[in-house]
Amino acid sequence: STHSFTLFPYTTLFRSLGATFKEVDSRTAEKFRLNAGIQIDTIDKNGALAKAGLKKDFIILKVNGQPIRSEKDLTTIVNQTVNANDQERALFITGIFTNGQIAHFAVNLE
Prior knowledge:
29% helix; alpha+beta; 6 strands; 110 residues; single chain; 4 helices; six-stranded antiparallel β-sheet
């Protein structure tokens, strides 16, 4: 599996969401016919994602209506949401569990 720990400040993502992410492997992507998505690799039970009901291995497909293809995409949306003063700081996440169940979550950011 390919992990990219450089190029981007992922720590902000972990601090905001309480999770780390990995690329979706090709077999899983093929099985669910995914053309986007990143998978939760580790999750802190006290973090925002876990509190909202997300679990390890859940595949995030869209956040706030935007397709997510990389951690960079996710970081951009998280930063926009955290810095928005005129709205509640919430992420609306659509994704799929590894059993094929599609799910939607609302995640409140601090």
